[in-house]
Amino acid sequence: MGFIIFFVLVLLISINALYVVAEFAAVGVRHSRIRQLAQEGHRAAARLWTYLEHSQGLDRYIAACQVGITISSLVLGAYGQAALPPLMAPLFEQVGGWEETAAYSVSAVIVLLGLTAVQMVFGELAPKSVALQYPTQAALRTVWPMQWSLRLLSGFITVLNGSGTLLLKLFGVPQTSHHHIHSPEEIGLIIAESRDGGLLEPDEQHRLHRALQVGMRASNQLMTPRLDMYAVDADLPLEELLERIRGSGFTRLPVYKGSLDNVIGLLHTKDVLAYYLDHGEIPAVEAVMRPIMAVYEKVKGDRLLHLMRRRRSRQAVVVDEYGGVSGFVTIEEILNKVFDPQWSAPHLKAARAEPLPDGRIRLPGAMRLDDLEFILGVKWTGTAQTVGGRILDALGYLPTPGEHIEIDGIPVQVERVHNRKIVSIVVAPTGESAGEAPT
Predict the structure, then answer these.
(1) Rounded to two decimals, what is the model's pTM?
(2) Residue with the larger pLDDT of the pair 281 and 348
(3) What CATH architecture does domain 217-339 belong to?
(4) What is the pLDDT of residues 171-215, one digit of tens each?
(5) What CA dihedral angle connects 361, 366, 372 and 374, to 10 degrees?
(6) CATH says 354-436 is which class?
(7) For the packed helices 2-28 and 126-133, what is the interaxial angle rounded to 10 degrees?
(8) If we measure between CA atoms, which residue out of 174, 80, 89 comes closest to residue 118?
């Protein structure tokens, strides 16, 4: 008799654990991984994907898990209270000399507390940890019993989901589905945890963080600024045009007419060469230039890449709300800012952080502040986007070369100023940051 009772209790706790594993695994598993396995012919993954690919299917899947957990917990408590106290009460009567009623009451309390503890550990906490640690394996191994549960509890789930939806509508609460939705900050925390857990190398973590930052940056934070643009005038004499192309180092150049605010197209050097080979003469700029797309300077990086991909364009001119040209952006620039934190356009001088013999570091004024954090290990606060902008923000005027200032505890010397722009500075990092400067 005792063996049967023990077997039933273990079975009920196991059923509860199964539903807990299935619920947390279904929510925590990567949908892309299940889809990939399903496409490769994995039967369990294909079955699971039918529930995960639509939010309604996942809602029913989770509802079946919750119904199963509730039913198994209630049955466990009821069966345990009915079966165990009659077996334990005689022991308390003999050992403690208690009356039958008191012994039964004490037995019932002990059974309640004991079953609750066992249920929490073996039916809830341990299965949840397993599901979160191995979501893919757990989801695949529980999909078949979950499929039977969905069929068995189909009507019950429909009634409960409908009742829940109606209740939410009565209270004016919008209905939401189970989705993997993370803010960029949460994704950043996940990346950091993966690095701490040994799954990512430090340089991989930095690249992933930078990819997130690029997606959140506006176009005017990714572009080559107007002052640093290398463009050609449509009315430039042919001899000067060739000299300008040769000295630029670029294969694609924006073309303007009259003013840089009037960019009318894009010149590709291979088009000039092809025209020369076909006609034996150098063409006029407007004869071979291509159309160029214009993007608003506040468009975020992820949408910018989407627009460029949709228009099949590798570059775009960035304009402000008044129609003026703010700068020029290319896909190569965007990608290099992800994979090379010190990268800058080839024509910019002092493009990289440069350690000096005295322990200080030379930094370009055009370096972004989040790049500075990667280089020095120190985050400069403020509303400016670049190192030079942060210094201007602190001083309120354009400094002269040799001028000293302290920014967030870091001594700074302005080194070069040209064309109303801070070209380079020299910093003296303190503490651990000094050892983190790139070589």
Answers:
(1) 0.48
(2) 281
(3) Roll (3.10)
(4) 776 655 555 555 566 666 667 766 666 666 777 767 777 677 677
(5) -110
(6) alpha beta
(7) 30
(8) 80
